[in-house]
Design goal:
The protein is α/β, with parallel strands linked by helices. The chain is built from 21 helices and 20 strands. The structure holds pyridoxal-5'-phosphate (PLP).
Length: 609
Amino acid sequence: MKNFGLDIWSNKNFIIENGEVKLNYKSMPSILDIIQEIRQDGVRGPVLLRFPHLVKKQIRSLYSYFDKAIKVNNYKGSFNAVFPLKVNQFPHALEAVTTQGAKFNYGLEAGSKAELILAMYKIPNGANITVNGFKDKEMITLGFIASQCGHNITLTIEGLGELETIIEVSKECDLKVPNIGIRTRLHSTGSGIWAKSGGMDAKFGLTSTEIIEAIALLRDAKLLNKLSMIHFHIGSQMSDIAPLKRALREAGNIYAELRMMGASELENINIGGGLAVEYDQHTKSKSRNYSIDEFSSSVVFLLAQIMDSKNVKHPNIFTESGRFIVASHAILVTPVLELFTQDYQEKLLNFKDINPPLIEELRELNKLLSNQNCIEYLHDALDHMESLLTLFDLGYIDLQDRSNAEILVHNIIKKALYLKSANPTDELEQLQIKLQERYLINASIFQSLPDYWGLGQHFPVMPIHHLNSTPLRAASLWDITCDSDGEIGFNPDEPLYLHDINLDEEEYFLGFFNVGAYQETLGMNHNLFTHPSEYTIKIDDDGHQIINEVESKNILQILESIGYNKDSILEKLENDLLMSDFIIEKEKDDTLAKLKIFVEQNGYLRTTN
Ligand SMILES: Cc1ncc(COP(=O)(O)O)c(C=O)c1O
């Protein structure tokens, strides 16, 4: 895996220079420098870094590719986008989205009452709000209130019941009626792990029969002029563009039919989300088969073609892609706390003035191993190892010789594995599984990478330093939760190699990339590990600034958030200590002070790493 697949997943956002990963932007700070600056203040555990310039880059890219496609296809409708709040509602992530999106009139999508209130609070003047998901009368009334307050809001109905409630509310109050959208239940399904958002058995949307009924209901209620949008969403992280094209043909024709049925204010098609992010690090398993250029051109071209063939006005295009906008803006950096089989390090070799001939031969093999000879040398090394073990059993070599032999042979195997990693033989694959190293990371997979735990979604991972040397260890990653699911196991099809580090002497940090979409709100407090401390990094030509620090919740805060009373916890612990018989007075005070410090820190491990 050359450069940890940086050229596949990083979208040129990062580069490797002087052995470190750097931001490929303006003053190009190294991630390690940023982390060390943050850790100077005693911060330990995992850290989440946000880079607003990457949100800006994605918003610009979305708008500019659609603008280009509109020009090239002489398209008459406009392009509009809304950010789906469910993808990341965290204040500093959303701040980046609304600030960077302001000049594009970038709107927000809400899928619940809380998100709708957040949208009404954060929406820039005049930008669009779309509302999806199941709605009760209260949520629909909130939509009316938003409309009355001047927001450009569209309530997308997921079923006829919702439309009936909209009509009911419109009769009951004098508030301004919001725009109405219809989510269509298409035949077309998406592709990838989230494909079930589309298709006839999808959870959401109206069938053609229900759409016809909806038009009749709207006409009767004299609200047909409020029907402004047709909506579909075939699933997040669409790996293949073909299902989108089928969905566009279906939805485009529904739009055209409805216009011809008299829905004269129907002017918008909302294509939902789906725009995928490249998460893979290995060329043989790329996440998607299209670019943003192809995506935008296909949408615009197909809609123009359908409308022109039916002589219908080109609709304005709306998208709700959020993963594409924010996934790349956040990196999780985790210290490695321990390597579990550290005993075969080259620096522990201790040769004598005169070594047994087979040891000398192993030294040569280790030195001269190359891509061409590695399989042959590996076989020689394994053969020598067998002989050396027999010599040891018979008392012809001593323990030091045996240790040297083991280190050399392990090293030869590791080098051969690395050299043949693109095309390993069966024998190498077996060796690789036996030799893998466990890296203990100071983080919780349940909290920070829940989609890995729940869906097997891979996130690009790599060391942020030590990149001048070749990583040779086949690695699996263990988190610090007491749960065997908290592991990213070594996968021979998508191998991860990390460095041999002596953690007593050096630090080792891993970066998990593209974690800015969904992971933060889906993250769970398993074992009561909380959202990592987060920082926003503003980069300019002269350097960078670390702002918006939000520390990870401390132990008392997390206990309080699930309903415990922190004063009562402290009181009980304090009393127990003061009442204890086996402790002298002075030590009681020191221990109490220590206890108070412990509970006011976050629960991640506080070793020097
Ligand atoms: C209706 C709707 N719009 C937008 C999105 C966001 O899509 P994406 O994850 O591709 O950004 C989703 C997510 O599933 C959705 O359900």
